[in-house]
Amino acid sequence: MTDLESAAAAIDAGELVVYPTETVYGLGADALEPAAVERVYEAKGRDRSNPISMAVPSVPAALEFVRATDRERQFMARFLPGPVTVLCRRRERVPDVLTAGGDRVGIRVPDHPLALSLCERAETPITATSANVSGRPSARRPGDLDAEIRDVARVVLEAGETAGTESTVVDVSSGTIHRRGTLADEIEAWLATR
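^ that's the sequence the OP posted. Answer follows.
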C-alpha cells in the first residue's frame, strides 16, 4: 500500500493524517464525521468556537456539500483550485462541529497534486486546517511539525517545503475577506467589480 493509499484509508477509518498543500501542511480527517473532527480540535488544542474548513477535489464536488449562489460559483470557477477558502452556506450533511454551529462552511480545493489525490481517494471531504498546535507557526516542512501533531497523525504525506503563506478566507456573499493570504489583492479586485 502506498503512503497515499494508507492516508486515504486512515481518513476513511476516522484517523488523522498530515498532508501538503500549496500553502502549508494540513491536518486531515473525515470532515463529515463529528468524532474525527473532534480529534482535529483536540490535536490542535483549537477553540471549539473556531470553525474548520473542508477540502474537496473539485468545485463540482464542493457543490454536493454547499448551496452556492451564482456569484459564489463564478468566484470558485475563477479562484479554485487555489490558495483560497470560500465560505458558503452548508448543506445539512455538514456537521455542526465543523462549522462551530454556524450556517457557512469554508471550502478548499487545494492546488497541490498530492492534496488533490488524497481528496480524490478519500471517500469523504477532509478537514482543511493547518497541521500545527493553535497559536504556533504553521508547518512548511514535515520536520516543522509539532510533536503533538506528529504523535496523533496516522500518516504523514511528505512533499518537501510548501510556500508558507496561508489561504485567503473570503465570504463572497458579503464581499468580506476574513483572512488575507495569497491572492488577497486579486480577490479584492474581483469582489469590487462583480
